[in-house]
Amino acid sequence: MIKMEYYLVVSTILMFVGIYGFVTRRNLLAMLISVELILNSVDINFVVFNRFLFPGQLEGFFFTLFAIGISAAETAVAIAIIINIYRNIRNIDAKSLREMKW
């Protein structure tokens, strides 16, 4: 059986890669992928803590399925917004969003 610490290390790496990608990227799609990495690290934590703390129950798995559904809806809405931004200003950099304010 794999120890809990290994799962938590993978989850922590995913979290920090997602935060780093969100802070350093200027492309909206790359920022969206970084947010998805952060959400995946949270999903790993849900499953791991459920498995090791309450092995006979499925609450962590249901939370994870709910979180995956929410992130799929969030991704669909975000991609629709990004497509609309691209149609208006022909660029999807985060800096170009200032043009839409005025």
Characterization of this structure:
This protein is 76% helix and 0% strand. It is built from 3 helices and no strands. It has helices at 4-24, 28-53, 59-89.
Task: Give the helices and strands, then pairings.
Layout lengths: L3 H21 L3 H26 L5 H31 L13
GO molecular function, one term: quinone binding
InterPro entries: NADH_UbQ_OxRdtase_chain4L/K, NUOK/Mnh_C1-like
GO biological process, one term: ATP synthesis coupled electron transport
Task: Write a brief caption for the model.
This protein is mostly helical and 102 residues long.
What's the average pLDDT?
A: 91
Structural class: mainly alpha
Number of helices: 3
CATH architecture grouping: Orthogonal Bundle
- What is the CATH T-level topology? Helix Hairpins
- What's the number of domains? 1
Gyration radius, rounded? 17 Å
Portion of residues in beta strands equals: under 5%
Q: Total number of β-strand segments?
A: 0
Brief descriptors of the model:
mainly alpha; elongated; EC 7.1.1.-; 102 residues; Helix Hairpins; membrane; 3 helices
